[in-house]
Amino acid sequence: MDNSDQTLGKSLLDVLSGKSSDNPFPLFTQMRGMGSVVPIPFSMGGINHQAWVVTRMEETMQVLKDHTHFTVDRRSIVSSSAIEKNTDPSASSTFLTESMNAVDDPDHRRLRTLVSKAFTPRYMEGLRPRVQQIADELLDGVQTQGKMDIVKDYAYPLPINVISEMVGVPESDRRKIHVWSEAIANGLGLGRHDPGIEEHLQAFSSYFMRLVAEKRQHPADDLISQLIAIEEEGDRLSEVELLSLIKLLIFAGHETTSNLIATGTLMLLDHPEQLEKLKTDLSLIPPTVEELLRFNGPITIAGPRYATKDIEIAGQQIKKGDMIIPLVKSANRDEHQFVQPQELDITRKIKRHLAFGYGIHMCLGAPLARIEGDIALTTLLRRMPNLQLSIPRENVNWQSKLASHGLSSLPVVF
Ligand code: HEM
Question: CB of 367 closer than 6 A to ligand 1?
């Protein structure tokens, strides 16, 4: 790696750890120019690791589907018992380490199968009327004011309310969930774990322990109660897994989708000719949602993978134990896959994008996110067709959190 490569690697780490929230796409273009698999300097806990960034679609898919050579669970390749499975249900960060996103088969398949029953496309379609009602209620609240903050008034509350209802979090507690998950997402990034988030992780965790205890006494028609019934049946779900799963669904189920709605709205405002085309034909919303996911989706990277064996990809010699970072936002702008990838084109026929990942860990909530994105944008454009930014474009602030990149606020008039 020469000096300029090191500088690029350092800039990328600043983006991924949330230290820099500049427009990352020119950097991603430069990285693709360097290759499909690019080494970057990376240190975690003071120890240097060999890390690689995968910048193009073909190689990203190769990594995400190859479970023989790559794992999401670093513990499976560390020989010492230094990192052990956490079996304490009250441990605060288990949802990041014990949940389906962070374990391999057979545990992954068992957990995903249990929860997939609640995430069938049919069940999701059945949620449409309720999602529509929530979207309308939120816009009713601001309609007469003639202005709103898209993030605070619409994009954030819509998905948190949908997933909370599904899971069984009472309405009165949703504000607390917001505060905790904001703080947790802000304090985490690749190789970053701010000490200040511990108290929020603990509060988030204790809250769900109490809620599960309460639902054990008073089951209701919600996902927590269904999962408790499975746990109580016997050996299919442990208590630590039950709690991790619930926390993961709440956490994964709102932040990202709110970014899709808010960033998606800004991308359309940035491309007035595309927005006009869409307003004259709202049946273009589904392909628009796909193009927004491709063009500037909420997630910058899929979870890091670790090589379980030596392997060569795109001419690079990857060694057992190396970390691989699938840069999905870059893969979604791959010149080898898309014509004019840097252009937003809502009529583009997209064969595939990687905004929801790929392979066995591909997003469980994708059908729900698509429905929410579809209803949120349709309702917004139908009810507020004259939507405009109310601050200068250069004052719009980006925020990087965990693996996602979104807006801290988006003030508009309509
Ligand atoms: C636009 C919104 C969303 C985006 C862009 C998104 C993106 C992703 C991505 C890229 C992954 C794969 C990560 C990896 O391979 O390391 C993933 C996994 C996951 N997502 Fe989403 N997500 C969204 C919405 C949701 C929603 C609404 C839910 C829940 C209701 C959800 C639940 C999950 C879960 C549980 C996983 C782990 C799946 C597994 O490991 O098998 N996501 N998501």
Answer: no
